[in-house]
Amino acid sequence: IDIRKATKIFKTKNNTIQAVDDVNLHIREGEIFGVIGYSGAGKSTLIRMLNGLEQPSSGEVVIGEDVISSMTRSNLLRKRQKVSMIFQHFNLLWSRTVADNISFPLEIAGVPKKERARRVAELVELVGLTGREDNYPSQLSGGQKQRVGIARALSNRPEVLLCDEATSALDPETTDEVLDLLVKIRDEMDLTIVLITHEMHVIRKICDRAAVMENGRVVETGPVIKLFQNP
Ligand code: ADP
Ligand code: ADP
Known about the structure:
This protein is α/β, with parallel strands linked by helices.
């Protein structure tokens, strides 16, 4: 993943906000890369550029061979299957079971029913929700809900997983369980993970490298052991 001189300006009625300001980042295949910063630093806007939910006002976003920042809408929709996302509040469909939530992106992609069932069974086992297939999200704990979110995000076999404050709504113990799961799927599935967080613990526990954002700018970047070692 290459982010080159990316800037994002939001114009509202009364003011102009530079949410992302001339950011350059290179994220390596297979790494877990963290972006940390206070609320309002520009983390969400930056990560949303990686799946085309936001287009940069200037600069370029490249994933593999694809210049995400200049793609047409239909190509972007196809590419988005290769770049999945999980969220702080899980964004599950509340009227659908665990199995149907995980299967949903596959239905949209037109995957045949038998193949959907096969993949759902695989994913349920991978994320440790065996026996919960027919539960509704309201019957699950926060950690279990995020496991459904992760399984759903993996259903289309993405190359990149984006995590937007994915453990911020969870207690410390559950946070660690979900972080362990992210490391496991990175190791087993040839995945690159980009996560944003305001919690140092998350960065220290699973990230290989990280960037620190302040006021739309990346003010530091490097391996986590170097970035946060005490002087
Ligand atoms: P973070 O994820 O680090 O909390 P955000 O990327 O959400 O930061 O926001 C960065 C800045 O951009 C904030 O000042 C926010 O209010 C502003 N911003 C984000 N999205 C929009 C939008 N759609 N319209 C106007 N301003 C926005
Ligand atoms: P349907 O599949 O019938 O369109 P949903 O499953 O999306 O409906 O939503 C069912 C109910 O759950 C709605 O009242 C909706 O507002 C609520 N809901 C959906 N998503 C969320 C969410 N992420 N957080 C809280 N409530 C939600």
